[in-house]
Structure formats: structure tokens, C-alpha cells
Write a structure and sequence with these properties.
With 373 residues, the protein is an alpha+beta fold. It folds into two domains: 253 residues, DD-peptidase/beta-lactamase superfamily (Beta-lactamase, 3-Layer(aba) Sandwich); 85 residues, D-Ala-D-Ala carboxypeptidase, C-terminal domain (Peptidoglycan synthesis regulatory factor (PBP3), Domain 2, Sandwich), CATH 2.60.410. Helices cover 31% and strands 28% of the residues. The protein has twelve helices and 17 strands. Strands 14-16-17-12-11-15 form a six-stranded mixed beta sheet, with no helix packed on it. The protein has a five-stranded antiparallel beta sheet with strand order 2-1-9-8-7, sandwiched between helices. Strands 3-4 form a two-stranded antiparallel ribbon. β5 and β6 form a beta hairpin. α5 runs antiparallel to α6.
Length: 373
């Protein structure tokens, strides 16, 4: 599923639209958002664009960079500096060697600050250079209200995000199978012999809420309790984020209850499904059939209406190759664009011999008079 960034201004629009639903329960969080993991649509929000500290939810980006920029099978030598990192830990020792995969599990399950520094040093040489990679990825994903100074989330004035950015980052991350597997793991033993460690996930939502499948906890005295969680029911996956939430477990359960009670999953377009035909010129065939190149998945409620708007030429010229993009269809949900799908040719369509002769004559003529480039 391709990553698609849902327009940010819609968080305000949708907040107003569903305000009466939000008032049905009170959140302890200073900032919160609930989104549809399929396309990033904001389902509810509470001051979701406010820049705040994120504590150990930072490690979502750390894990992403580790998976995308490093190799999970790499053997990492832990430095004394990494082992001595303050705060939550997976209790690494200076000089010991572990696979990168074990460090990522320690990072996300045990919230190991030591694992974060070890990962940073292995990939980039030092924490500052790794933070630059984190910020580069944030910019690529359009997370313009986010800035990282470290891989673990210990307090820093220049280390901040928003609930909205954190939700969109998590949405992207969950599309990576390795990331999704790690954050849904309740416990795992890494290493062997005297170096074996059993890591237990700090995310209580995995056992507290039906369908919960991630993601990351966080806490510092300055940032308060921070939590990013995801849950899936009947194909609908939701992502909830709270920043500085004294009662975060309850907040997330209420947000998910609201989301799953108000929204259902729908795929108005499925990959490979027939959509339209387009007239064909210069071929024995009169038309070519168009098929959807990918799915369109949305969360909708009873007040939403789904509309498909096609952008297809009146005709195309042969030859046509199967799989060739010949148009697109846009999916609108209550008059808001949520996704655009390419439409591709279902079959090859060769030129007629007559059409080939005409095209060859046109080519030779333009070359002779000097118009061929």
C-alpha cells in the first residue's frame, strides 16, 4: 500500500464536523488525534497541531531509520557510552555484541535508551549524525512540525513533534512488515546463553484492548505520559496518539471505542477490478478495458458519501501495452479527496498495418523536412 499524506487542514474541518461526538467523552491529554491508518484521514482531534515533547515515542522514528538505513542482521558492538545512557534500559554492557534486530526489539519493547544510542552509533557514528537522518526522513514524510535531537526522547527544547505528525509517521511505519511485527510483539527472548534477555513490551494496550497491535509508550517528567497505539477490527485499522495524558490508557480505549463504533472499513475500489473502457484508434480493437492499479481503502460513517471522479481521455492511439497507465480515478469522501488511483490497460492492443504505414510515413516526412528534433 503506497504512502499517502492526508491534507493537514482537514484535521480542523473534521474536528468541527464531529465535535458533538468528541464531547461524549473527556480526554486527559493536552493533545490527541485519531486517524484512519489506511489513508491518514483524521477522525477526531484535540489540539493535534500543538508542538510538544514526545518522550520515548521518539523511538518510532529511531526504529524506522534502523530498519530502512541499517540491516537487522548486522552484528552491533555496544560502546561504553551507549551502555551508560540514562533512563529506561535493556541493560546493555559495553563491548557486548548483539544483532541489530535484538537492539530494535529492546528499543521498542523495553524502551531501551541504551539501545537507541547503540543503533545511532552503529548506523551514523554518533547521535548527532543519526538525529540528522531522523530529521531528513521527517522532511521526506512531510512532518514539518517535528524535530529530533536524539534517538531516545530524553528532554531537549529542540526535540518536539505534534500528535498529528506522530500519527502520520506511525501510519507510514506500520506499512513496513518488520516494524509492524516488532511493535505488536508482547515479549521475546533475544540472545542466548548468559547473554539471553527476555524483553516484555511496556505497551499495556496490547493486552487491555481487543485488536490492539502496537505501538509505543513514552514518559518523562517534563513531557508527561505519551502514547501511540494502533488497533485493527474488521479490516479497519486506527492509530491513536496522546501527548501529556495522565490517563492515557483510558484515553486510548475511549478513542478506539469511538472510532470503531462510528466508522467502518470499505474498499470502493479493489486492485485489478474493471473500471471503464476507452476508445482506441489505429487498432483492430475498438476499445480497451481499464482496471484499477491499486486499492482505495477508506474509513467511513453513515454521514459520508463516496463519489468516484474519472479522468480518462476520449480516445488513445495504438499501440497499447497491458499495464500501461491510461487514466485515473479520484475517490471523494463527503466531497473531500481521499485517494487517486491509476487506471491501466487490461490487454495489449497492436497497431493495424495501415496505421503503422501512416505513422512511419509521418516519421519519415518530419525527418526529411527537419522537424524530427
Amino acid at each position: 500500500m503506497a504512502y499517502w499524506h492526508f491534507p493537514k487542514y482537514l484535521s480542523v474541518f473534521l474536528l468541527c464536523l464531529f465535535l458533538w461526538n468528541v464531547k461524549a467523552f473527556a480526554l486527559s491529554a493536552k493533545s490527541a488525534v485519531l486517524i484512519d491508518a489506511h489513508n491518514g484521514r483524521v477522525l477526531m482531534a484535540q489540539d493535534a497541531d500543538r508542538k510538544m515533547g514526545m518522550a520515548s515515542t521518539t523511538k518510532i522514528m529511531t526504529a524506522l531509520v534502523a530498519i530502512e538505513s541499517g540491516r537487522l542482521e548486522d552484528l552491533v558492538t555496544v560502546s561504553a557510552k551507549a551502555a551508560a545512557t540514562e533512563g529506561s534500559s535493556m541493560y546493555l554492557k559495553g563491548g557486548e555484541q548483539l544483532p541489530m534486530s535484538a537492539l530494535v526489539y529492546g528499543l521498542m519493547l523495553s524502551s531501551g535508551n541504551d539501545a537507541g544510542v547503540a543503533i545511532a552509533e552503529h548506523i551514523s557514528g554518533d547521535v548527532d549524525s543519526f538525529a540528522a537522518l531522523m530529521n531528513q526522513k521527517a522532511q521526506q514524510l512531510g512532518l514539518f512540525d517535528t524535530n529530533f535531537t536524539n534517538p531516545h526522547g530524553l528532554d531537549n527544547e529542540q526535540h518536539y513533534t505534534t500528535a498529528y505528525d506522530l500519527a502520520q509517521l506511525t501510519r507510514y511505519c506500520l506499512q513496513n512488515p518488520e516494524f509492524a511485527k516488532i511493535v505488536s510483539t508482547r515479549s521475546i527472548t533475544v540472545g542466548s546463553g548468559e547473554g539471553a534477555r527476555t524483553l516484555v513490551n511496556h505497551n499495556k494496550m496490547l493486552s487491555m484492548y481487543k485488536g490492539a497491535d502496537g505501538v509505543k509508550t513514552g514518559f518523562t517528567k517534563k513531557c508527561g505520559r505519551c502514547l501511540v497505539s494502533s488497533a485493527t477490527r474488521d479490516c479497519l485499522q486506527l492509530i491513536a496518539v496522546t501527548l501529556d495524558a495522565p490517563d492515557d490508557w483510558n484515553d486510548h480505549q475511549q478513542m478506539f471505542d469511538y472510532g470503531f463504533s462510528q466508522y467502518k472499513w470499505q474498499a470502493p475500489i479493489k486492485e485489478g477490478s474493471y473500471m471503464r473502457t476507452v476508445s482506441l484508434l489505429g487498432s483492430d480493437a475498438d476499445k480497451v478495458s481499464l482496471y484499477a492499479a491499486s486499492d482505495a481503502e477508506i474509513a467511513y460513517n453513515k454521514n459520508d458519501s463516496v463519489k468516484l471522479v474519472y479522468d480518462i481521455p476520449n480516445f488513445v492511439e495504438a499501440p497499447v501495452i497491458k499495464g500501461q497507465t491510461l487514466g485515473r480515478v479520484s475517490v471523494y469522501l463527503s466531497d473531500e479527496l481521499v485517494k487517486t488511483i491509476e487506471l491501466v490497460a487490461g490487454d495489449d492492443a497492436a497497431e493495424t498495418k495501415k496505421n503503422q504505414l501512416i505513422n512511419n510515413f509521418k516519421y519519415l516526412f518530419t525527418e526529411l523536412i527537419g522537424l524530427g528534433g
